[in-house]
């Protein structure tokens, strides 16, 4: 059913209104006023049926919780716990009165994400770009020149050693057999744990051969247990999807060879891929490749992420270029004129009208503008670092390939909102400094004072003020003078 619309009741007359508790100048309150929340309702509304089921939770509440989660880099449990305690979080999510209880369960966030999907959630990223344009943090012309690069969105998995995977497989099968009521000849749990300790103790020392012997024992234990459960399950496995899943993944683990390309690196996350990035500190990363596009120019509010998507299967970087440019043009509404990429995109063969793809370390470039912008290509690396350290792109806990795509999109939206919050704080400081300097000057009459205040504010803030903002600031200054 469509999300319900909040209505006032008689009991609300005695409740504390949030506007009486919070500071209206707080950056979260100001950001909430700039976001077009109806845009989310229009995009997500068609996914609900009008007269079927109970009313859904308000779209602004769910979207606001996810935006706060990725602004602050919190888990679902943490953002739900802090929402009850923080009146600014509640005001950001559209509440009029302070609430002492959470109006949803934590699992509602998981179900909402899965229902919306990554394609519809792109509207959240598009709205952050629209707000940045509205506030003057980035100009439409700066979106025509982008820097594109790929990175790895790592998954929350342990380092996939053979001994660890085999021990987990034995534990998985024992739990599944116990729930399915299957009597085993032998559990192998005690023997497997001892063999795992011996592998960790001997494999990287002088006892390498002995460590390999214990590793072969682990594989034998897992194989015997898998065959025992397969024989005794019979037709029961077809009726028990959990048991079928366990047998299928353990069978895949036992049959894979060192030279195979599509290996299983985590039993609970079969979509994890091993991606070599050539880093000295980390030769391989386990997750999914994702493509990012940021502004190339030095925007006033920082480098905003204009596009983000995952690329399962670890494709060649050049094959992700066309999709990334299409996403940027869809989210921003601006046509990409120049794209700056690294040498991993050589041979991309992408040819479009009015599009120039500049690869780093290209010789013979005559245009000084392109040469200057090409030197800005490396500035995307700190943005990737912020997405991983300040956001939630490192060790993603969401399930499946759709969880990977959702996490990348929301992390990019959270990065843009962090830049916008910093921009609003700085923007407010500029306004106050301009008002203070303008009001302290001598003026012959009130009308000239009004005009001079607006001119002084525009002088102090430069080109960062949106249209009409200086006049509004001057009107407010004279009202409270």
Characteristic terms for this protein:
481 residues; 6 strands; alpha/beta; six-stranded mixed beta sheet; 52% helix; globular
How would you portray this structure in words?
- With 481 residues, this protein is of the alpha/beta class.
- It contains 17 helices and 6 strands.
- It has helices at 27-34, 37-44, 59-72, 76-85, 87-92, 106-134, 162-180, 189-202, 208-233, 236-239, 241-255, 321-332, 368-374, 380-389, 400-439, 446-461, 469-479; strands at 145-154, 273-276, 284-295, 305-310, 338-341, 356-359.
- Strands 1, 2, 3, 4, 5 and 6 form a 6-stranded mixed β-sheet that branches.
- The chain starts with 26 loop residues before the first helix and ends with a helix.
- Mean pLDDT is 86; it is low at 459-467 and 477-481.
Topology:
Layout: H1 27-34, H2 37-44, H3 59-72, H4 76-85, H5 87-92, H6 106-134, E1 145-154, H7 162-180, H8 189-202, H9 208-233, H10 236-239, H11 241-255, E2 273-276, E3 284-295, E4 305-310, H12 321-332, E5 338-341, E6 356-359, H13 368-374, H14 380-389, H15 400-439, H16 446-461, H17 469-479
Parallel strand pairs: 1-5, 5-6
Antiparallel strand pairs: 1-3, 2-3, 3-4
